[in-house]
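Lesson 9: reading folded outputs for more than one chain in a single document. The general rule is that every protein is listed as its sequence immediately followed by its structure tokens, and records are never interleaved. Here is the first one.
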Amino acid sequence: MDSYTEQIVIHKKTGRDLIISIIMILSILGIVALGFLLGVLINFYFVIVGFFLAAFDIYFCWYVITGRNVEYEYAVTNNNLQIDKIMAKRRRKEILSIDINRIEGMDTVGENRLSDAKCNRVMYLGTNNDDASQYRFIVLTNKYGRIMVVFAPNEKIMSALKMYLKPEVKIEMLKSSRK
């Protein structure tokens, strides 16, 4: 019998997203102001050109700002964990697809049992980077090498993951949860 479980997690906006939005809005205002300034100083046609450029910049800014809306989809199908990144509900990219039994260690961010010193990369694929209730695991992949993945699964995803984890990883998780 096949098992399938999925979850969508919304990545919370950071200060970087706010700064990008402010810069985008300032670029619109700057183009309009530059068009008026050049229209007054040189020729009135620069005002019209400024409005056309501002219209294109409004679309570009809308595209960039809404593109910062990121969701992650976790899907557990039998022994496979797949994590996709959904950007602005208009584009999807597969980030990671692994066999669950290849996971070398798992804990929560708050426990801090795993060390990322031996990892080539740390991938934050959850709500935000500072949430201590998120889980993380270390796995060896063909594409990235040894990586640490930080993600925010719900109980359904965690129970589906635990079914296929190695026994030693399950034991370590039980030991740490009893402390």
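And here is the second record, again sequence then tokens.
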Amino acid sequence: MVIADESFHGSDLEIIADRYGIDMNRIVPHASNVNPLGISSLAKQALMDNIDAICSYPDPNYTTLKNAISNYTGASADHLILGNGTSELIRLVFKILAPKKTMIIGPTYSEYGKAAKQTGSDIHTYMLKESDGFELDPQQLASALDASFDLLVICNPNNPTGKAIPKNKLEQIITDCQSKGILVTVDETYVEFVDQIDLISAVSLTDTYKNLIVFRGISKFFSSPGLRLGYAITTNPQFLDAASNDKTPWSINSLVSVASVMFSDEHFINLSRTLIQTERNLIYSALSVRKTIKVYKPDANFVLIRLLKEGQTASEVFDYCIKRGIMIRDCTDYEGLGEKYIRFCFLKPEENDNVVNTILEIV
């Protein structure tokens, strides 16, 4: 068994395979949170037909790519900043805006804290309560924020809790922050997996609120982490101007523009959402009857589970699963959770049946 305080990112398959002496290609990645359908067939064909695009420099303005994203999201192409993955954009926000005091809603993705720390921002965490099911109350958050804060960071749906904040509640938060001079960033990496995206996404609010920046990418829903595309949507003039001048030229490769047909692949988009919605409901129903675990009803493509059995830890369950070729997420390293929490994402039906049955064997 690995040591108790060691946990792994969903992409650490090579490390895991070496540590446990198993074939990396036989590990089922229930920790990656990536769409199990793989890349869009339209994007795949476009990449195969246009592989020679790698021989040319990309269009420095990325016109084709921005127009594809604009058509997909409804946001103006002029309000888009492209990055080499969402992580680059998160760091770019901290670099450009240099917030002196940042509030991060947790438990959440660690990259926000790392980016804030690198720029010397004074970091505060508004920790959601397990007793509230990790649900956010906008009024309680408002009471914790004052004009001394420069930036509020929200992941919606949140990783690792899987909970989504409805758009009407987000607007309350953004309005309150606007009155206090606080910029709000909303990371929507997982929003395309929710049941009704229009009731959750903050993209449409960017036209009204200049203190809002929304992040999205193609790693998870479009199953293309290797293409490294993230994009920010905002009407914030300071960030738009500075980011346009500050970004490294040609930071996004030529193949991303070729693959941008993924944004118009309605068959892939609808099939993905239907699959995840169906599996999410089945998995929640199957797990929630077990009395030795607490399952938090998910809105995203993964589920968070609290282990209730006395003495049982996340590392023990992780160890049990990985020895059977299943990689789940030990959430011990998430601030605010600890050694009693695991998370796994939804893949194809037979794989989901296997991970649920395997977890139920030990919990």
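What the second record shows: Residues 266-288 form the longest helix (23 residues).
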